[in-house]
Amino acid sequence: MARSSIRLLIAEDDPGAAEALKAAFDSEGYEVLVAATGSEARERFAQGPWHCVLTDIVMPDVDGLTLLQEFVGTAEAPPVVVMTAYGSIDRAVQAMKDGAHDFLEKPLDLDNLRAVVRGAIAGRESEPANRAARTKDAGQKILVIGESDGMRQAEARALRVAPTNATVLITGGSGTGKELFARLIHRQSLRVRAPFVAVNCAGLTESIIESELFGHVKGAFTGAVRAKKGKFELAHGGTLFLDEIGEIPPPVQVKLLRVLQEREIERVGGEEPVRIDVRLICATHRDLEAMVTAGDFREDLYYRIKVIVLRLPSLRERPEDIAGLLEHFLRVANERNGRNVKGFGAAARERLLGYGWPGNVRELEHIVEQAVVLTEHDMIIDADLPEEITGDKGPQDILRIPVGTTLAQTEKELILETMRKAGGNKTKAARMLGIGVRTLYRKLEEYGEK
Ligand SMILES: Nc1ncnc2c1ncn2[C@@H]1O[C@H](COP(=O)(O)OP(=O)(O)OP(=O)(O)O)[C@@H](O)[C@H]1O
Ligand SMILES: [Mg+2]
Q1: Which ligand does the CA of 360 lie closest to?
Q2: 160-193: per-residue pLDDT in tens?
């Protein structure tokens, strides 16, 4: 056999399988080395460079996932293809998150395996930056805050459908977390290392949305000076998130339906259909069923996209989640703005907990960030909150302090609010509070106020 410069390391403890794998790649002209245990694979790896590593997961000593983590952490970081037993989807997901190039389920289809390894080796030179970026992205955890039944159920459902290829329709009011859940599903799927591409369909004209989704060839229309890939192609192997799907104009709905049926797209002005492998997640705040009845949304498309429906409850339906979200976004806002605001005053908290949150989590996030940036104190007080929360009577003069608040805390809030009311004039504030100016100075100093 002619020595090839392409070196493949295979870790497989089953002698029969190892033999078959070696034969399959010998015939490709690769230099193949088979390690029969995980620790042997580790030793052999050190005798690199390797262009690709193919590893089984379950091995008696060191398992394939451990090897994967070690190998992708090295400077060379060759692509690692993982072989899993049929049905062990959790491990496959883990492998993809840990940076595997791909995974294949046993029993293996050798032609497919050869194609995957060839692709891994070919892709290696061209996309190291890409790989690193994707791996980094894959490592970031998506936090879903909320202990309410509604949130727990939505998360459990999302995690259950994530590893499948099922089309998911996410419904919910604005700011309820539709995009967050779409990303969560992608992140927990086997597509985790391929792109997640989001398209907002709102406000785009028919022709723009068509070329956005399907791309166009050079000269397809005036202004198409060069060819452009559509989002379907960019999401190939990964997940396409179509936000505000209800806004897609009827002629594009027809085309979308055809893409979902045929699994191929046609670029605007193009002749050749292009095969695509994309998992679709759609979101809308509209009532699609009503739109179908009204004739604004195609019924056949509706049935295609609502295979799995994930409804996200509004914050008003789950007020018990507000407190946790406040703490979470306080932490986030502190970090993002280099602040160290410690918490919410009792009166401010009372307002925030009782508010209706028409803009849901997004509104809550913004209001907390605004207050963190604007507050002059080490906690957020009533005066730091916008009018829509404190009522529209202008700056509020009433503190609602819940029973259970300590006297010290109550005193602090009353003093800070009085200072605000007095426009920062300490003499005036002291008079309103019925205390001496010196006492007021001392208190403010205690609070760390200037
Ligand atoms: N349960 C949650 N836990 C933590 N963060 C959340 C949660 N729900 C939403 N968020 C955050 O709130 C913000 C708004 O969420 P997202 O963009 O997913 O909402 P949306 O439903 O897509 O909103 P819109 O309808 O306005 O597009 C994001 O910053 C998101 O990370
Ligand atoms: Mg959104």
Answers
A1: 1
A2: 999 888 999 999 999 999 999 999 999 988 888 8
